[in-house]
Amino acid sequence: MTDTAKIEAVGKPEPSSARLITTLGIAGLMAGILLAGVNLYTRPMIKENRALALQNAIFKVLPGCVEYVPLVMQQGELVEWISEGIDEEISPTIFAGYDSTNVLLGIAVVGEEPGFQDIISGIFGYNPTEKLIVGFEVLESKETPGLGDKIIKDPAFRENFTALAVEPRITTVKEGQKNNPHEVEMITGATISSRTVVKLINKALGTTKEAMEEFATSKQESDGGE
Question: In angstroms, rounded to a whole number, what is the distance separating the alpha carbons of residues 71 and 104?
Answer without folding.
Answer: 13
